[in-house]
Amino acid sequence: MSADEIRALMSAACNDRLTWNTPLSEEHAAQLVDACVPGAGARIVDFGSGWGELLMRLVESAPGSTGDGVETDPGAVARGRALAEERGLSERVRFHRMPAAEWADDGYDLAVSVGASHAWPGSTPEALRALQAAVRPGGRVLFGEGFWEREPSVRALAGLGAEPGDFGSLLELIRQAEAVGLRPLQVTVADQREWDLFESNANIGQGERWALANAGHPLYEGVVAAVDERRTGYYGGYRGTFGLAYLVLSA
C-alpha cells in the first residue's frame, strides 16, 4: 500500500468539489475581490496559487489585467492552465511551476498568498516581507494565514500536526503585517460553516467518495483509515480552535 498513492487520491488538485483549496464561500470571495480593487490593467501575482481560481476572478474583475500564478504542484498547475483556457484567460493568466521563494519579479499592483506562508523558510514574517517587496508603493496585498482562535489543546495540535508557536492570535497576525509596513484595510476570518464545508469536501469527502466507489480496491483500507484520521483530527481536534484569516493590506 502506497502512502503517496493515497495522498494523490485525496489531493485537492484533482477534487472537483473544491472551488479553491481554502475555507471560503462565494460571498466571502466576492468581498475579498472587491476589497482588493484591482484596477484596469493591474498586474497581479498569486504565490501558492493552486489552480488559480481566486487569481482568475481577480483578473476577470479588472479589464486588461494580468496574473502570474506561482505554484509547485504539477496537478494544480495543469488544472489551472486548463481552467484559464476554458475561460479565455490563457493570455492573461500564466502559471509558473516554481517555489514562491524563488520568484523575483516585483512592481505588482496586487500580491496574493492564501495558506502558503510555509513556502518561505521564515514562514509568516518572511512571507509578509516577500509580499510587501513584490508590490509597488501604494499596491495591495491579500494574505490568508492561520491563527489560533483559542489556546490549542493537545488534540488540536495533533490533528493539525502543529506546535503551539506555529501560529499566534489574530491580533498578533495583524501586528506582524504592520511590522513590515503593511496596513490592514479589511480583516475577515473563515466562519464555521466555511470550515465545515471545506473539510467535508476536501480530504475527508474526496476520500470517502472514492472509498464508496472502490470497495474492493487494494488501497481501500488505507484510504478509509486516512479519512478517519482526518475526520478525528478535525472534529475531535482543531475545529473551532484553528482559524484562517484573510487580510487585505495596503503597502
Tell me briefly what this model is.
The protein has 10 helices and 7 strands.
Task: List the strand order in the largest sheet.
Answer: 3-2-1-4-5-7-6
List the total number of helices: 10
Overall strand count: 7
How many domains would you count in the coordinates?
A: 1
Task: Name the CATH class.
Answer: Alpha Beta
* CATH architecture group name: 3-Layer(aba) Sandwich
Ends apart, CA distance between termini: 49 Å
Mean of residue pLDDT values: 95
Category by helix and strand content: alpha/beta
What's the multimeric state? single chain
State the order of secondary-structure elements, H for helix, E for strand: HHEHEHEEHEHHEHHHE
Would you give an account of this structure?
Helix content is 43%, strand content 21%. It is an alpha/beta fold and 251 residues long. The chain has one domain (23-191, 241-250): Rossmann fold (3-Layer(aba) Sandwich). It has a 7-stranded mixed β-sheet with strand order 3-2-1-4-5-7-6, sandwiched between helices. It is globular, with a radius of gyration of 18 Å.
